[in-house]
Amino acid sequence: IENTTPTEEEEVQYRLTLVGCLPVHPLTTMAMLPWVVAEIGRPRPGEREKPVGTVCLCVSASWVRCVWTEEVERDRRPWDPLTHTRAVLFECRPHSVIKLLHNSREPCSFGCLVRDARLCYCYVFQCQDSTCCSDTDMA
After folding, report:
1. Residue 121 contacts residue 92 (beta carbons within 8 Å)
2. C-alpha torsion sign, points 12, 100, 94, 16
3. Alpha-carbon span 78 to 6, nearest angstrom
4. Which of 19, 61, 134, 138 is exposed most, by the fewest CB atoms within 10 A?
5. Does the structure show a pLDDT above 50 at 138?
6. Is the domain covering 11-41+49-138 a CATH 2.30.29.30 domain?
7. Pick from 48, 58, 82, 87: which is nearest to 70 by CA?
8. Tens digits of residue pLDDT in 109-129
9. Is the peptide bond before 51 cis (omega within 30 degrees of 0)?
10. Domain ranges of the chain
11. Could you give the CA distance from residue 16 to residue 9 in angstroms, rounded to a whole number?
12. What mean pLDDT is predicted for residues 13-36?
């Protein structure tokens, strides 16, 4: 009997700026997403300037996880659930990310629709450069 240990799953991490998020109806279509994304990006009266904060989007074959990175920034280490206690914004299986939207007029930003058991949320992120958005579109 051959003694094999399971290999660790490859994970890609993207450092992004969270522009915002909104709950949306589960039947939201691709045609509706540009308006939802525009609504998320629009500053509200009396609200601070967008963006909301820095996050790390961790993508693997089994999980998509988005975590706040203020703590990671101080440590300069990749996010690790055992050492970083900041809140997880969302964590789901890849099939729960049901739509991705990349606006050609804003090449450094993209939106995604994430479905959990009962609700859907649209998250809008901004990349440091447009190559990151190209990578996430292909994921």
Report:
1. no
2. positive
3. 22
4. 138
5. no
6. yes
7. 87
8. 888 999 987 889 999 999 876
9. yes
10. 11-41+49-138
11. 22
12. 89
88-92/64-68 β-pairing: antiparallel
Scanning the structure block, which residue is given the tokens 């009396």?
Answer: 46
Question: Cα separation of 55 and 73, whole Å?
Answer: 10
Place of tokens 């290999």: 7
Chain mean position to CA 43? 20
The kind and range of the H/E element at 66 are strand 64-68
* H and E: helices and strands count for the chain: 3, 7
What backbone phi and psi angles, to 5 degrees, belong to 81? -65, -20
Write out pLDDT tens, residues 66-115.
Answer: 988 865 445 555 545 555 555 888 999 999 998 888 876 777 888 899 99
Q: Which two tokens stand for residue 131?
A: 């190559």
- According to DSSP, the residues that pair with 120 across neighbouring strands are 24, 115
Cβ atoms of 79 and 56 closer than 8 Å: yes
Q: Judge if pTM exceeds 0.70.
A: yes
